Each structure stands twice: as structure tokens, then as C-alpha cells.
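Predict structure. Input: Integrase catalytic domain-containing protein, 808 residues.
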Amino acid sequence: MRLITLAMRPALGRCVIVFIDDILVYSRTLAQHVKDVKWVLDLLRANNLYVKIKKCEFFINSTHFLGFVIDAKGIMPERLKLELIRDWPDPKDLHELRIFLGAANWVRKFVRGFASIAQPLTKALKKGMKFKWTEEMKTAFCSLKEAIINITSLYIPDPERPFKIFGDMSEQRNALGGALMQQDPCVGWLRPVAFASRTLTKEERNYPIREKELLAAIFLLKYWRPYVSETTTVWTDHESLKTLDLTASYAEARGRVRRWMSFFQELGVKLKYLPGAKNTLADALSRRPPSEKAHAAMGCEICLQTSSRLLPDEEFLQKVRDGYREDKFFRDALFFLSPRAQGQKREEPPPFLRFRLSHMEMRDGLLYYKNRLAIPTKKLQRNLIFECHDVPGAGHLAIEKTYLRLIEDFYWPNMFSSVAAYVPRCDACLRNKQANQKPFGLLQPLPVPARPYDSVSMDFVCALPRVHFQGEWVDSVLTVVDRLSKRPHWIPCATTITAEGAAHLFYDHIVCSHGLPLEIVSDRDPRWMAEFWRGLHKLAGTRLMMSSSGHPQTDGQSEIYNRTLETMLRCFCGDHQSEWPKLLPSLEFACISSTHSGLKATPHAVLYGFEARTFPSLLVAGRTATAAEDFHLRRQALLEEVKERLERANEEAKRKADQKRREATFVPGDWVLVHRKFFESERLPSERKAKLSHIWYGPFEIDKKVGEVSNELMFPAGVRKYPVVHVSYMKAYPVSPEDPPPRVLLPRFEEAEWEVDRVVDMRGKGRTLDYHVVWKGYSETEATWEPPENLKNAKDAIKAFKELRRLR
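Output follows.
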């Protein structure tokens, strides 16, 4: 350390900090930093000292140094060390308590009121005290850990600028402390430089309250003496100290107070009063109030007459009529449309209004724009947006879908802007919607079906709350989506459902309502891979199109609807999770009655030729019925138009997506690494954490190309994953022919029991002997090569294979 310090002496205190053999170079600007780094390297060269380039970091805005993180915001301990304190178990004796307090004391200067918080714990360390873990100590233990994990960064001070010291004394805890602050010129407010605190001694606890408050200021001034100058101000929340005249009162003071006042005069600092209500110096995280859960009680009242016809709410319509008088735009429109105004020769309406008046009419005191009810006032408009966005039948869908639902029946100026301002601020959407990720690999869209239900996609939404529904226990949803009309079916079921049970649900809900599809798109799930399930599809004349292993790209439609369903369920049953099966019909209706972005029409209209009737649409007078022949022609035209739109959408989606993707150039014989996400269906052992595990595994040799965006890899024995992998999971691993075969790194997963169905082949001998094993519940294409040590419980299957082979 002495050698490094001597070598760096010219730069110490200017731009360099040295600790043993660690050198930290700091600068305020990039140009100055280049000069400082060059200076330090020149000093090292002049003293024949060398640095290892692998251990160096240059031109960084944040660094780890001696257990702390230093960046532009300030200094704070490394998060990993704080998490160790957070996870500290309750002490069992005095020894463990001392160890914890010693570890916590390392971050003491970052925690305001440390001594006050830890006082019940430090009191237990007194000599002669018997250790007893009380409720008060447990509360203090948890509070101290919470204060430590929520610490904020400390501001790096500027010695040329004045400091402020804020002191406080806790009578209840018999502790004193405070904060050293400095104004940040970048933002204009005070930032904490350090915190300090300690408990009062037995003698100090007998001081009068005024002297205790003065003692807090003296303690802080002594603690931070290197920072104190004549420009320093000490703030106290004890009102009697504001009348303390350090010069006039000195002659009257006695004892310790006289010594303290002499210390104040020596430093030349100013003592000022700050009311306790304003002396809130806790850092932003510890001051943050707990978030309140929003409890929205929504009542829906539907009044039915004996007739089967539903009528508009007259109370709502009256509010609309009354609102026209409050809204300037509609008030003017109402005036120019009134018979009295039309019979008089008055000034022309403004151009903005004149254009809309040509499409407006008045019926029963209500304004209609292009046969859409005109809605005045912000309150009524927000109520309608709520009805078309927040209720279960609307589904908390996006801006465009909400707008298209509204524009069908209602009108007001700048309608899209109103929706665009409402939806992004929706609390449920903000809390529950996920950000879409960019896709990987060249897009391979499926061909557009010829008619509805020729092709459907299927998938499961799992891990939902287990509830009793219609006589059965359910915790999953079977998702079936028609690929032409985009009409979803959400069918509650159990995670443990068998292939036969899934087929029964499919038959009841799909086949009996829409007929047998020609094609089913599904991911590679054991439910669909079972031989009975595949045989059922063959008998029905379907073609089971399987997606790449671990990459359901061909089943992206079901994945999107699964995400939509999860989002809507979070919005409506966060506090009542057992109600999710009852919501499925409403949420399904929300999707089929909403305009699909690719179809430019609702799934209901594509299937049946007309829009689904909703409660908001009942507020508008009935529309004229369409003749049967015209209805048939319009429906056929709509289907053809939808297919063209889907084809154009597929082409456009592929064009746009491929701009952000690159074509894979892997060929058979190449070596590749595989991302850990490919193996995420397996479970890591409990002692292993994904954060510290490998990201890429392998390398594996490519055996052959499968389709446009997948390859079959040569997995070694023991890897129980289907070897067809999408290119988005792969990364090139260069291998030279002269090099020995690379070492294959495999993921270590929690051991699981797999039941052997049969052994179908063997290879090698001795130490290289492997058996080709078909696993129960999986097809022969999922068979894997396993060494004998993995088949210790399958001796009967091996014996049966050898006996069959001998007979052959």
C-alpha cells in the first residue's frame, strides 16, 4: 500500500483514491477524465508498476469499490450485502445478536435514526442482562432490517459548498441523531451526505430536555467536524433553542452548557430553529407511505319489463339532454338545429360547427351525428368510456378497441383523444398488462383458412386458483381459437385432464356447435403427443400441426389470447380469485364483440354477419333490418374481405417483423449453444438460483434442418427434451476441425421420476452402452438415449427388450 500511495502521491486528493492496491480515478467531465487517466498511467509507468487489463474498468459511470456502489447519484452499499442483512434469521442468543448488530453497523451512516431504531436491541447487550427475545426486540429487529434494505444513496459532497446539519432527539427511545445535508445544484434540493445517531448514556438521560436537544447538535458537530465551517448551519426542532444567544448567554451559562457554547463559538456555526413537522429528513424510500389498494365497488342494475325488449335508460337520456346546455359545442348545435333558429335569418354557424351540422339531426330532444348519439360533458363521456373499457363485458382492452366499440353508437368531438387520454391512465391496465417483447427468428405465418372453423388453435392457461365449478374442481382453461374469425373459446378444466377428457371438452364445445375442423394447431404438450389423442385426430381427418419444441411460434394466436385472458382475469378478480370461472363467458363476449385489429371487424360479425348487441348500443334507437338476400351477400363479401385482410396482414406482419430479425445461417454439422429458456420447463434444484446459473448450455451439434426456423440437435444421453430447437434459442459455437470435441455443459435440474414404457434399441458396449427409451405418456419420437445408470428401476423393460432381440 505504501508503494502505491507514494507512486500516486501527486494525484492523491485531486483525482485519485488509493486503498492497498486498488486505484480509483474520478473526474467531473469526460475530457478531464481522459487527462486524469493518462496522468495515472504515466505515474505507474514512471514507477515501473503494471496493472492487469482484465481487472481494469475504464470510462464507466458506476463502479463497485470496497463493497459500495459509486455513481452519479452518490454512494450506497452493494445490494447483495443488504439482502444478506434482510434475510438474517432471528438471533437465538447474545452472540448472534452481537453478530447481527455488527453487520448492521456497517451501513449505520446510511440509516437515519439507527440508534433509535436499534435501541431495544442494544439495551439487551448491557452487562448482566439475560437474553430474552421479546416482542419489542422482534419489532425493532424487523424495523432495522426494513430501514437497511430501503436505504437511499448518499450524495457525494462538494467541500467548497456549505453544509446543513439537522439534529433531533427522541425522548421515547433515549437516542439522538441527525443528518448531514448539502444542496444538489443539479436538482435544487437537499441531498443526504451521511446519517449519525447514538443512544444516550445513563447520566445523559437525566439532562433537561433543552440540554438534550443541545447535546444532539454538539454530537453531530463533533461527529462531522471535518465538514464543518463558518458557513455550516445547524437546525434543531426544539423551539427554546431559537432564543439562545451564543454570545450573550455565555456569561450566564454554567458547566457543560458553557463548554458547549464555547464549542459553538469556536466553530462559528449558526444555530437555527425548524419546526418538528418540517424536520422530515428520512430518505425517500423510508418516507414513502404504504400504497393503498383501490377498492372499486361496481354495481350493475338491469331493469326488465315483461316484454322481451330491452329499453334505453330514460334517466341517462335525460342527463344527456340536460348536458347539452352545459356544453358549448352542443349548445350551439342545438340552437342552429332548432326550428325557431332555422326560421330566422341569423349569422352563419362557425366553419367547425357548420360541417358537422350537415350530418346532425335532433330526435326527441337528443342530438344524433350520423345516427350516433351525441354525448355532452366530460362526466358523461367518461362514464361511457368506463362502460366500454372497464366492465367485464369490455375486457380492459386497448385504446383502438375501446374507441371502435364507442364509435359504433356514440359521438363527441375529439372522441379518440378522450379514449387515448383515459385508457393509458386506467389503474387496472397499468397494474396488470405486460409489455410486448420483440419476436425472434423469421416469421412463418400459417395460410389463411377458407372458412370459419376449418382451422383452430388450442392451448392451455394453467396455474389458476383451484375452485369447485359446476360439480368439478378446475384450475386451468382450455383455449380454442378459430383462426379465421379469431373467435376464442375459454373452457374451464383441470390441469390433470387426460387426453380423453380434453377430447370430450373439444367435442362438446366446438364440434357440436361448429362442426369438425380440418386442421388443429397446437404446441408440443404431452396431452397432444399421447398416441390416443393423435389417433383420434387421424380418425377425424385432421392434421395435427406441431410447433417447434419449446417455441410455440406456429401457435402464436393461442399464446396471445392466453395473455389477453390472464390480463382480463387479473383486472376483474384480483381480490376475489375464486370467481374466475364465472367470468369466462363475459370475457369471451368482450373479445368476440370487439373489433379485431387484423380483421377490421368483430369475430361475431365475421361468424354471423351482424354485430353483437351490447347494453350501450341499446341507448340508440333500433336500426333498419336488412333483407335476407342482401344479408347473405354482405356476409359472403365480408368473409372474402376478411380473408384478404388476413393475408395482407400476414404479409405485412412478416415484412415488418423480418426487418427486425435476421435469417439463421446454421447448417448440419455446426455446433451451437442453447439458451436456458429452452430448458425452463424443468425445475432447478432448490439450492440453485436462476440468477447465478448459466445462460447458455451446450454446445450441441446440428444433426439436420427441420423446417425454415428449427434444427434437430444431437443431444447427449440424459437430456429429456425433444431435440428440435428454434433458432431463436441458438447461438453459434465456433469449432475448428483441429480442436478436440468440445466439452458439453448440461443444465443440472432437480431429479424427477420418469416411467419407462419400453426399450426399443441399444448402441455401443461397455462404458459407452446406451438404451433407446420410450417414456410412458410420450410417443416414440420423444424417445431418448439413456445410460444404464439412469435405468436402475427399469430392469424389467431392459430384460424384455433383450429377450425380444434374442428371439429375432
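The first strand starts at residue 16 and ends at 19.
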